[in-house]
């Protein structure tokens, strides 16, 4: 089926240079295993950055995708479709939300959420209530609006002028939020656990205080659960393990388990502000994507699967701690469920990428979250034996780098 022979060098020849992928090219995956062009096998601790929640080519998802591919691929939103309606019903049944908007990526779901927050304030208070508060180190996507609400300056550099009316305060710092919030604030936007920013969980007290301040100033609380949602933390959505419920929530990544789809969920009162013609997406609610997502949700939203995510966290942590006892590599091991970050000790700062490459040499696919943190977001269903094998490979990778630096 392939017209040309391609390898990693082809990437540098034909692709815009905004990425620098690893040296190998994976061509096949099954469960938590991946094979490259040369037939070399890897254990996948990366899970497509918290996307492949059910591993690669899950048989139930394959069945649904094949079934739907023979019925209906695409319609546009001029017509509605059964998979989209069924998925929306199911999402509403499982969460705080009353209404759903479908799109295709996390960025788009957040774009819709931020637009809705402004529109709701505009409709109910007036145009002066338009300010959005985000947090330092937060990540919400790569469109101009989402890099602006995101708290990492480097993603905005060179793209000015960016949208106005957005401020950032330090995460988990309630006094800073108290000082920044006002009657002009239309929304506070946060990840329950900052993912790209370094796997930093929000404190329970902080979350409660944020909710209280939002209520006091009539601002909406928006949770970006794009990385934390769909079972990643051992709960269907991370907010479900807190005493706080948002007004708007976004989901993507694992929602389609590898098939692109995203959703913005909201209460009925808030959703009403995205009235007829105010927002849209050609592909949003695509029947193929929605049928895969519905099956994904049905598989993930089960007590036994979610309890296993928490149990597997302990196994990951134990293995990482054992590596640390030998090599004193990590300052802290953080995270919840299968969203795990191991922060490198200061002498290793800036070198997380080297561990990712060494991981590939030893047969394990890893991620990083910034220059100092090794991140893992494996399939939620990764078998214990694959965790043990992957950890053995990780230890070999660590040993290689450690020995080179002795
Ligand atoms: N929000 C969070 C918390 C994310 O982790 C990401 C992606 O890493 C996004 C938004 C952006 O999602 P996408 O890359 O699908 O646009």
What does this protein look like?
The protein is of the alpha/beta class and 406 residues long. It has two domains: 8-57 and 303-404, Aspartate Aminotransferase, domain 1 (Alpha-Beta Complex), CATH 3.90.1150; 72-301, Aspartate Aminotransferase, domain 2 (3-Layer(aba) Sandwich). Helices cover 38% and strands 18% of the residues. The protein is built from 13 helices and 17 strands. It has a seven-stranded mixed sheet, with helices on both faces. A four-stranded mixed sheet has the order 1-2-3-15. Helix 12 packs across helix 13 (384-404). The longest helix is centred in the last third of the chain and has 25 residues, at 303-327. It starts with 7 loop residues before the first helix and ends with a helix. The structure holds pyridoxal-5'-phosphate. The site of pyridoxal-5'-phosphate has 15 residues, from helix 5. Its EC number is 2.6.1.11. One of its GO terms (molecular function) is N2-acetyl-L-ornithine:2-oxoglutarate 5-aminotransferase activity. It comes from invertebrate metagenome. This is Succinylornithine transaminase/acetylornithine aminotransferase. Its cofactor is pyridoxal 5'-phosphate.
Number of helices: 13
Strand content: 15-25%
Provide the list of bound ligands, each named once: pyridoxal-5'-phosphate
Helical coverage, percent range: 25-40%
| Total beta-strand segments | 17
Largest sheet composition: 7 strands, mixed
